[in-house]
Amino acid sequence: MIQTILTAVLAFLGTNIDDLVLLALLSASAKTKREEMHIAAGQCLGVAAITALSLVGAFLVRAVPTKYLHLFGLAPIIFGVVKGIQNWKGKAAQAQTEQPAIGVGTMTMLVLFGSGDNLSVYIPLFAVSDAARVAVSSVVFMIMALVLCAAGRIIGQIPPVKQLVARWGEVLIPVVFITIGILILLG
């Protein structure tokens, strides 16, 4: 059991450490508790969806077209470009008063679209695991998602990080999304 837990923790950290940067930036840019909750809920829903997809993929391991997973990198690029254009045109301030900067659905999709590395690790992990190990790993992934959200919030609240995002967030956040997308595309 301990080996399963350690394996799940290492698999999660290895495939989600990039999310920590994103969570810290988004947390630093969040204006309300509601936005922070949307970010955390979206992250957790995304991890749950990735875990479910990995379980299905473990059963269909031969049919999963893994060579196309890198194309999911287009989503963060598109999101980053749209966010950058909104910021450039000055519509970001108006949008922030009407709705949260990042909604639950948007955050969930960003997590899902950046899941190529997760799927490439979790599918084989689940394929060689029995039901008990899969269940334990799934619980560990959800706990780790909460820990990652908390760590992102803590980092995002550090005054220099908050000041950096306050000053450069309109440029920095779209650049981070576009960079993540390019890295996913490059595989």
Automatic annotation (TrEMBL):
Source species, domain of life: Bacteria
InterPro entries: Cd-R_transporter (IPR004676)
Keywords from the named record: Membrane, Transmembrane, Transmembrane helix
Signal peptide (residue range): none
Residues passing through the membrane, by range: 6-28, 40-61, 67-85, 106-128, 134-156, 168-186
Protein name, UniProt field: Cadmium transporter
Organism the protein comes from: Candidatus Pseudoramibacter fermentans
